[in-house]
Write a sequence for this structure.
């Protein structure tokens, strides 16, 4: 796998990748069963076709044991998260991670525990910069 591959999965691709990261390797049937618990009117063949496309895009790999095909994610979850984060910051927040963080904290109904964790993180960053 190339380290500089800039994966930008679609929402359906990301849903499949999340199942794979948690359970890989997986069969089409397993992925279908997991996703159909969350979505109505999802077809088995829809998942199969999506996995075939993702294989061509080098997002998933396929191996075969007997007649059963198993799929695994190629990119790591952290790599996809980083790519999606960078894209979100660049496109929606004009390159400002601070604006994204402030927006998230202001919109999400931040709990006292979360605010305390943010304050602790800020204190650690100050200590690093002063130390």
């Amino acid at each position: 796998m190339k380290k500089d591959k800039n994966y930008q999965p679609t929402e359906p691709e990301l849903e499949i990748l999340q199942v794979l990261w948690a359970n890989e390797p997986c069969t089409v049937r397993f992925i279908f069963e997991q996703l159909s618990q969350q979505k109505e009117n999802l077809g088995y063949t829809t998942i199969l076709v999506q996995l075939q496309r993702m294989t061509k895009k080098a997002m998933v790999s396929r191996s075969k044991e007997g007649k059963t095909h198993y799929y695994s994610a190629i990119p790591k979850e952290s790599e996809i998260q980083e790519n999606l984060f960078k894209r979100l910051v660049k496109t929606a927040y004009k390159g400002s991670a601070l604006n994204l963080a402030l927006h998230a904290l202001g919109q999400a109904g931040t709990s006292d525990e979360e605010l305390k964790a943010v304050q602790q993180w800020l204190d650690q960053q100050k200590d690093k910069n002063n130390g």
Summary: The chain has a mean pLDDT of 90.
